[in-house]
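Suppose you are handed a protein chain with no further information: no name, no annotation, nothing but its sequence. What can you learn? This example shows the usual starting point.
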Amino acid sequence: MSVNKNILEKMSSAELEKYIKPDSRFMPQAIEYAFEILEARGRVFSPEEIEKKNTLIAEKQNNTEVMIHPYHTKAANLIYLSGALAVANIIWTYESLTSAMAVFIVLITLSFIFGMGYLAGKGTDWVKYVLLVILGLGLFALPIILMTLRSNPVLGVINITQTVLQIWAVIILFKVPKKTVHD
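A reasonable first move is to predict its three-dimensional structure. Written in structure tokens, the prediction is:
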């Protein structure tokens, strides 16, 4: 949540003094803005007060934890599992890696899968939309997966399992509630 400096500028100096008290419950950015506004209004801070300000802001920033919803972690684990199955898929069909271009495509694909898993695990919200689009495009390949299931059952099962894991991950990511931040 960001702090609107314009709102703080409309407050009286007495109200802004509440922001800079040691027991302040306000966000570090709001505290910093309050100091800046008071300073611009002519309030002179002693070196001790400046040190207190820096300490208070540092403590507030350290206390502000990034909470990652458990669904992000579950989805990331499913995506990592899908990536591990992709590695198994590559091992199973290693003889098809005959050109440098094929190896390059495999590396890019694996990087994308594990990168999406990493971003999902960090709580990045837009990952679910990227995965949804990629999954939607991948569903066009479902007939090919079914044909693979007939010609090479192990590879077909790996591909179907990957698809199910990815669908499951996208569903879980869309179940993550919207973020709400309280002061």
